[in-house]
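User: I'm putting together notes for a lab meeting next week and I want to include a structural view of one of the chains we've been expressing. I don't have a solved structure, so I'd like a prediction I can at least talk through. The sequence is below, exactly as it appears in our construct file.
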Amino acid sequence: MQDVLDFNHRKAASRLIKVPAVALAFWIIKILCTTVGETGADYLAFNAGWGPGMTDAIMALLLITALTIQLRKPHYTPWIYWLTVVLVSIVGTQITDFLTDHLGISLAVSTPIFAGLLMSIFAIWYRTEHTLSIHDIVSRRRELFYWAAILCTFALGTAAGDLATEALNLGFAWGAVVFGALIALSYGAWRLGGNAVLTFWLAYILTRPFGAALGDLLTQGKADGGMGMGASWTSALFLAIIIMLVTLEQFNADTETFETD
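Assistant: Thanks for the context. Below is the predicted structure for the 261-residue chain, given as structure tokens.
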């Protein structure tokens, strides 16, 4: 009887968590969201003719709307969570691009600024909640810290990725290889007993420049070192994969809720 009560207690507690389990599907969707953030913002601003200003305003409004819905959900809901991640990816990219293109702030300056800001968010989060684990996102305050950190990781990843692939002439292909290798090292460190929270956040930050380099590699012209697929085709392909994977997660979540009830 006690085992049944403990199981039900764990099930009830797990339903309070507002973020997905960290499995292979999590990282695949995260990287695809990152790439869509890179290619989607460029497509809307230039190919679709919206212009940077209108694109920034519309994406910011959509992010606020999606985040409001996400915060009101009582537990992890795949479709709104990942929609919010896609929009955070786009807005994070736009923040860095605005600082670079409109304010003339060097990537060598914005990268450490975003890194310092992220460290400050983590410090305040830990001091307040005594944990940085995403497995403990069970309150509104912790979730707000989480999304603030996520937005900063995208801005930081954009700046660091652009600094590596453009300012340091690393190139798109080598950028994807280097950042992919760093992600693999983070995974290896975790498998060897490294701190799970630290290695998770390192990998999460690194997926942004990896996804951006991958997006540029696919979309940019061959003369610029890319494969010439174009932003529209790349965005559509990756969005289709994201929708398929998130739909599967949503189906599993709905099935689990039905069985629990």
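A couple of points you could mention at the meeting. The chain has one domain: 22-254. Residues 22-254 form one domain.

User: Perfect, that's what I needed.
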